[in-house]
TrEMBL record:
Organism whose genome encodes this protein: Sporosarcina luteola
The protein, known as: Copper amine oxidase-like N-terminal domain-containing protein
Keywords for the protein's UniProt record, in alphabetical order: Signal
One Pfam family cited in the UniProt record for this chain: Cu_amine_oxidN1
All copies of domain Copper amine oxidase-like N-terminal, residue ranges: 34-139
Region of interest called Disordered, as start-end residue ranges on this chain: 331-372
Signal sequence interval, chain numbering: 1-26
InterPro entries: Cu_amine_oxidase-like_N, DUF6612, Mao_N_sf
Amino acid sequence: MRKVATWVLAFVFVLSFAWPNMTASAQTGSMKLVVDGVEVEGYEQPFMSQEDVLIPVENLFNEAGYQVSKDAAGKVTVTNTYLTVDFSAADEQITVDGEATDALFPLTLKNYGNYVSGEFLNELEGFEVTISEDQQTVNVTTNRVQDVDAFLKKMVAANPNSYAAKMTIDQSMVSDTEELSMDMLMDIDMSITNNPIGLYQKMSMTIGEEEVSTESYFTEDGFFQQDGESWTKLPEELTAGLLEATAAQADPVAQLELTKQFMKGIHIFEYDDAYIITQSMTNEEFQSMMDEAMSLFGDMIPEELFIDNEAVEVTEATDVKEEQKEEATIVEEETATEEAAEEATTDEEVTTEENAAVEEATEETEEETVEGEEIDLDSILGEVSISIDEFFIVTVIDKNTLFPVSTNGKTAMTIKVAGETVTLNQLISGIFSKFNEVKEIKVPEEIIKNAVILDLDSEATAEELKEEAAE
């Protein structure tokens, strides 16, 4: 149960609309679809009709890095949040950012009509369509940044020294065991500085009808977190690793590599006033990201976090039991020289006492916890199965400063561990501000003076720890 908590989201309506002058009878053979130099494979391919090329909507926009979805009525929506296009066969309409267009749709009966004309696509911001001379290939060029590494280098170089952020995370967790099912809403205000390293965070968390608010500081003085009316401080060995990881990001090369490793499945779109970064992720990409994360941070995580203080040492109980049996054997040999009647009586009494002693020793030993038993992190992760059902994050970047403006996203994943299943759904939104305006973050002296160092082996609250320290 604790593992699960620790690790701790119809049939398509048949389209039957067709325009008389663009029917299947007017179609010629299929063509190849190439988007930004990448050939798009699949059953649906472009074809010529009435001197225009018709391009499959879903194949095109999936390859172009857009989020593609379809509702029960068959309406296809493609978006990178900056540009959203709806293709509705039922309404015979295409809308762009909520505004109706004059474009005809659907254009053909073929494959339920989810095709868009090259003429329409050429008028759409960020797209250009050309056809090869032999009319065998359709080339679609988008406004995506082609050299992602070069762009990320510029972003890293422009990294602000300080900023503020407001984040909202709306999370729903559904488990096949009712105890773990919950809805949670988190509102987070953060102020961050890079030199010197500092973070101040205020978080409000609502779970059901219960609301909890907390504050935390992270500076070179340590990591401090509010617990009720008191404050706790993480042990030095923990904050040392966190500081090391944070300081490493000050190196532009290291930061670039870290950014690339945590940005699987990204597309960067260039518009007049902004860059739009979209990130989708497959199960394979997620696993790759997790592997890279563990290789980066595994050595920085203190060993104390991987000590199982609740493990039961079964072998110790077995050894005790064996020792008791050996003692019983010795006693039996010593009593073998006694008279027959006394021997039988003595054997019975000794055996009874020995069995009771063995059982008592075994029970006591099994109840004891073993200090220092190491847990293999890879083994823990190996027991957890995570399936990415949906992952789409969008970040808006100011084109002049290359600073982030906002981020929005939706994730859904299924986690299986120890025979139990949890579905986790998240809606994420955030805005960024006060670039290079946040002053140095300092932990108030009163908090430093009165904070109680957190005992990772204890479940006591900060108030209880404070009382113990006072005594």
